[in-house]
Amino acid sequence: MKASELGERKLIKLLTRGLYKNPRVLVGAGEDDAALISFGEKELVAKSDIMFRSTHFPEGMKPEAIGRKVAVANISDLAAMGASPLATLFSFGLPPSFDVSEFARIIKGINAACLEYDAPYVGGDTKKAKELSICGIALGEIGRGEAIRRCNARSGDVVAVTGKIGDAALGLEILLKGMKTGRYGKLVNAFLNPSARVKEGRAIAQCNIGAAGMDITDGLFFSAGEIARMSGVCLSLDRWSIPISKEARKFAEEHNVKENYLLNNGEDYELIVTIKREKFEEVRSKVEDAGGSLIQIGNVIKGKGVLIDGRRVKTAGYDSLNYP
Amino acid sequence: MKASELGERKLIKLLTRGLYKNPRVLVGAGEDDAALISFGEKELVAKSDIMFRSTHFPEGMKPEAIGRKVAVANISDLAAMGASPLATLFSFGLPPSFDVSEFARIIKGINAACLEYDAPYVGGDTKKAKELSICGIALGEIGRGEAIRRCNARSGDVVAVTGKIGDAALGLEILLKGMKTGRYGKLVNAFLNPSARVKEGRAIAQCNIGAAGMDITDGLFFSAGEIARMSGVCLSLDRWSIPISKEARKFAEEHNVKENYLLNNGEDYELIVTIKREKFEEVRSKVEDAGGSLIQIGNVIKGKGVLIDGRRVKTAGYDSLNYP
């Protein structure tokens, strides 16, 4: 069977079945946003994300933006666990004819993001390949038991997100279709110049109240579905409360894009979290103190899957083996 | 300028110039076999190595051997620092048509190596790409100040290696030329089924005597040259003492391969180390207790570069951007 027929999720399930573990592995492959390993008095968080020219970098994406994107994608998984960034590594595949100054600009984009998140770029590798390939690795640390886990949602929790959903998915759409970006600069920028919600993730984890959560890089519905599946609950969302930007609404109206498209497509690095109801105001206030925001979009109830305004939604999300 | 014109080493120099660091980074990008980061009472060691079908996996290399190779290449960098393996991550690029059962066999090879070195495979990523691409990441830990560093060699030290040099380079040659492997099984096996010198590295690091060292994946002369350059010394090697297998000598004779080819080409995962003369017997005995061996092949003297029997050798090694 071909990899594309099986799809990314089943492939991951297949590959993580029966892997060797030892007692220091607290969270292993396929179990959450990142791995969690016991390390002295703390826990080490590790995640790797790989991207390829033919799949991930639309024509016209500047080298600095490519670098930033890869760095932020990796750091975002630390944010989703609530970890403090520690360091990053980047390994490259380059075609022999690849332009050195373009490569230097990619590194510049990576390094700027590393500085922004205090996640110094400490190593990696460079090899010959058929296309530009960049594998990023983010390492972080977190106090024992503090990690935000996909499996922590409980019936009665509040569901919340850290910011607006859907801008980046539309931004990518605009770039892929080669549309003029002028009028939709904010949407395109959300795709090209993303931010990882590290401060928000840290603030939530430090409350140490067993929050659930992950980032929304594969779409809100998919992420909500993952939390529901891993926690054995249902996430019931209220459509009116999901924050969508004026620009995204306008673009969707003008181009006949259904709102569910925004909620079902990725590239946002916002977090979706679930928080114990009685702790929600306290956590929201900590996130605001850290300079972020936390917007309630629904509730955790008994059951399974994801509801929006009481109707069940598909949570398949974006499958990177079949994309675009 | 094209990447291949600049070459791998200059490219790395370019990309690591001016990277952001913070005080927790003890060894950063381009400074040694792996990065070293302060983490509580210990130090975290991290390394990433990336490989591509078109560059690294000769025709006929079995999927299990591909998996093992990538895992061992990464774990070997932990060995070269003297670290204990902690965990590994692997990120994949797969063509959509890639066969799932072949992928499962690659994972099997990886997992077997992870078990062998107690370096559990804890995460990674899978994306669509033009060719099979595998990025491995090895994480390890080491006591404060114990790391074997490339810059630690001092005039008067003994130069030693942990095993035979050149088998793997010939094994690769045999595979690339499509020669029958029957008679040269041992050489081919050295390439296909390598071992990382973790026990040896650990034994040396635990002696805590400021040893220098690295692995020999880019050739003995290159590695000797790196230690010489980073330490500001000259490594003077004695040709007769360099351990070369009977099979390698025989193949070289029959096929008119110069001995320097064995010493100038990579794919061996043996370590080259330099040890204070008065400590050498003690360290050798610890390495032997751990089940390994340490063979003196020369001495560190004042000066620079690498000498063999008193004559200067080129230390350019293997450049993976220009290979094969």
What does the model show?
- 2 copies of one chain form a homodimer.
- The first copy, chain A, has 324 residues and is of the alpha+beta class.
- The first copy, chain A, has 2 domains: 3-143, 2-Layer Sandwich (60s Ribosomal Protein L30, Chain: A), CATH 3.30.1330; 150-312, Phosphoribosyl-aminoimidazole Synthetase, Chain A, domain 2.
- Chain A is built from 12 helices and 13 strands.
- The first copy, chain A, has a 7-stranded mixed β-sheet with strand order 8-10-7-11-9-12-13. In chain A, strands 1-2-3-6-4-5 form a 6-stranded mixed β-sheet.
- In chain A, helix 4 packs parallel to helix 8 (198-207), helix 6 (167-176) packs across helix 7 (185-192) and helix 8 (198-207) packs across helix 12 (280-289).
- Chain A is globular and about 55 Å long.
- The two termini of chain A are 20 Å apart.
- The model of chain A has no long low-confidence stretch (mean pLDDT 92).
- The interface between A and B is large, with 83 and 83 residues.
Number of separate helices of chain A? 12
Q: What is the count of structural domains of chain A?
A: 2
Read across the widest sheet of chain A, the strand sequence of neighbours is 8-10-7-11-9-12-13
Find the CATH superfamily of the largest domain in chain A: PurM-like C-terminal domain
What is the residue-averaged pLDDT of chain A? 92
Question: Under the CATH scheme, which class of the largest domain in chain A?
Answer: Alpha Beta
